[in-house]
Amino acid sequence: MPNQNQGFTSTVLKLRFMFHEYYKSNPDSIDVPEKVHNREFGIQSWEYNWFCPKRKGRDESGRDTTTGCGQSGTSFSNVKECPKCGSSDIQTTTWRRHVGYLNRDELVRDLASVAPHSVYHSAAFYKIPVARHMNEKEWFGAELVFDIDADHLDLPCAKDHDAWRCNAEGCHKTGTGTHPENCPDCSGKSFSTRKWVCEKCLDEAKKHTVKLYDEFIVNDFGVNPESIQLNYSGHRGYHVRVRDPKVYSLDSSGRIQIVHYIMGLGLNTEKVIVTQGRVNRVPDRIFPGWAGKMADAIVEFVRNIDAYNGTERWVKPLRKGKVAALDGLQRNPPILNKEAKDIGLKSWQEIAEKAAEFYGGEIDR
Predict the structure, then answer these.
(1) Which of 31, 270, 318, 327 has the highest local Cβ count within 10 Å?
(2) Which residues pair with 73 in a beta bridge?
(3) What 8-state DSSP symbol labels residue 227?
(4) What would the DSSP string read from start to end of 131-153?
(5) Percentage of the chain surpassing pLDDT 70?
(6) Domain residue ranges in the chain
(7) Is the confidence at residue 362, as pLDDT, over 70?
(8) What whole-number distance in Å separates Cα of residue 68 and Cα of residue 56?
(9) Distance between CA 154 and CA 158 in Å, rounded?
(10) CB–CB of 144/135 below 8 Å?
């Protein structure tokens, strides 16, 4: 075991040295966010900082007792008891939080000096980013950030790499993919899950990221591409960050409305799907916003109608008239084909509402 620990420590020291050399030799490559003096930073170190609190108390007989020694130190392994006094009441962390920097140079110097394992900064702007409590930081704005996680997309490949187990005592039924609402053996509702992200998952997450970027942020909201940053999140998917001063002052209500718009939630389809003459129409693709997306959204929904689990009255007629419906929707301008029998205006409006939700951007709320 000592040799194993020595090998681990040696590897960590080599990695930290490499990080140190990189930060020292390539300061211009460091992506420092704007308004750096208004950001809160979190710094994760390679080693654990431990602290053994000294506590005074009394035992059952009423005699004064003291536990812990008040000492602190660092270790490359996560210590379970104080190396000085053996107390198990020990606190460990690899993090420094509520860190702030006055400017870029100060941040770069600290990175070169400390060579941390990881560095994170807030998307929000604070007047006092180093304050320890949120109500003391004085928030005054934030970037607009979207998170696309592959393991939230409910993809077919989940059956190959995800698994679940029922937590009910005496059951422990297992299965693959997404867990059911109720255990098939005992009807229990509590499950333990194991999720994994494969190459197919990431490819699908990438498609949703590109769709969010192109169709919504750039085309619909008119954000300059130079104000958008795309990042791989490190494991499960991608982050899209809008660094445009126009969005910084948005309150939570405004941000929620943007999310709902992207996800296609709450659209008034009665104003989108209308009757002109004797023909039920969907807006031409040349229109901006959701009006112009609606035909393609319904096309995608109709193509996948056989996999739809809903029980609405229009499901069977739409499956039966799938070919005719697609023929009308793919025309220019698109129409809602009468040859798709037994689907009236109200039904098409309901279909449009569902289609928008399926077509909308897959982002975490």
Answers:
(1) 318
(2) 50
(3) G
(4) -SSHHHH-EEEE-EEEEEEGGGS
(5) 98
(6) 2-141, 143-249, 274-359
(7) yes
(8) 9
(9) 7
(10) no
User: Reduced to 3 states, what is the DSSP secondary structure of residue 75?
Assistant: strand
Find the Cα–Cα–Cα–Cα dihedral 83, 89, 94, 96, rounded to 10°. -120
- Which residue is it, tokens 């005699």? 63
Question: Tell me, what's the pLDDT at 86?
Answer: 92
User: For residue 352, what are its two tokens?
Assistant: 């449009």
The pLDDT of residue 195 is 87
Instruction: List Cα–Cα distances, 78 to 93, 114, 130, 248, 346, in angstroms.
Output: 9, 20, 27, 40, 62
Q: Which of 352, 340, 336 shows the shortest CA–CA distance to 291? A: 352
Token pair 């939630």 is at which residue?
A: 265
pLDDT for 307-349, tens place per residue?
999 999 999 999 999 999 999 999 988 999 999 999 999 999 9
**Predicted confidence (pLDDT) per residue in 155-182, tens digit:** 888 889 999 999 999 998 999 988 999 9
Residue 73 tokens read as: 């130190």
Instruction: Please report which helix (H) or strand (E) contains residue 193, including its range.
Output: strand 191-194
Nearest to 153 by CA among 236, 240, 257, 262: 236
| C-alpha dist (Å) from residue 8 to 4, 99, 119 | 6, 28, 22
- The rounded Cα 194 to chain-centroid distance in angstroms is 18
Give CA–CA dist 191/188, Å, rounded: 8
Q: Give start and end residues of each alpha helix (H) in 101-251.
A: 104-114, 134-137, 158-161, 199-211, 245-248
Any idea which residue has 């409590």 for tokens?
133
Provide the mean pLDDT of the chain.
92
Instruction: At 304, list the tokens.
Output: 């996948």
Gyration radius from the chain CA atoms? 28
pTM of the model: 0.82
Work out whether strand 118-121 and strand 124-126 pair parallel, antiparallel, or are unpaired.
unpaired
Element (H, E) at 45: strand 41-51
